[in-house]
Amino acid sequence: QVQLQESGGGSVPAGGSLRLSCGASGFISGSHLMAWFRQAPGKESEGVAAYWIANGRTFSADSVRDRFTIARDSARNTLDLHMLRLKPEDTAMYYCAVGWYGMPWNDAKRYNYWGQGTQVTVSS
Fold first, then answer.
1. Long-range contacts formed by 79-83: CB under 8 A, 24+ apart
2. Where would I find the beta strands (DSSP E) of the chain?
3. Are 83 and 17 spatial neighbours (Cβ–Cβ below 8 Å)?
4. DSSP structure string for 83-115
5. Alpha-carbon distance 124 to 113, whole Å?
6. Does residue 88 have a cis bond before it (omega within 30 degrees)?
7. What is the pLDDT of residues 80-117, one digit of tens each?
8. Main-chain dihedrals φ then ψ at residue 108, nearest 5 degrees
9. Which value, in Å, is the radius of gyration of the alpha carbons in the chain?
10. Which residues share a beta bridge with 90?
C-alpha cells in the first residue's frame, strides 16, 4: 500500500512560480513511475510530468516542458514539481500518482495510487 500527500499549492499571478511536493509512504521500487497529473474544471485529467524511480529518467507534457521540472528530493523524500512562468491555463487541481513503469507514461489508468490533490490557481 502506498500513501501520497501533496503540498505546495496556492494562488499566484501569471509569471509566478510554485513548488509542489509529494510525500510518499509505503513500498515504492525501481519498477514504479511517480507522476503529477492535473485536472481543471470541465476538462480531462492531463499528465504533467513523471519520474522513473529506477534511473531518474523524466517525462513531461509538451505544454509544460520548458517551464516545469520534476525532480526527486532525496533529503526530503519527496517528488517535487517546480513550476516556473505559470500561466492562467495552468490553473487546476494537481495530483501525485504512483504506478508501474510503462508507456505511455501519461495514461492515468497505469497509476494505482493517488493523493488528494493540491490546488494551483494562476491569475491573469
1. 79/21, 79/22, 79/24, 79/34, 79/36, 79/51, 80/19, 80/20, 80/21, 80/22, 81/19, 81/20, 81/21, 81/22, 81/36, 81/48, 81/49, 82/17, 82/19, 83/17, 83/18, 83/19, 83/20, 83/120
2. 2-7, 10-13, 18-26, 32-39, 46-52, 58-60, 68-73, 78-83, 92-100, 111-114, 118-123
3. yes
4. E-S--GGG-EEEEEEEEES-SSTT-GGGEEEE-
5. 33
6. no
7. 999 999 999 999 999 999 999 999 999 999 999 999 99
8. -60, -25
9. 13
10. none
| Amino acid (1-letter code) at residue 16 | G
Confidence of residue 75 (pLDDT cuts 50, 70, 90): confident
Q: Are 122 and 86 a contacting pair, CB within 8 Å? A: yes
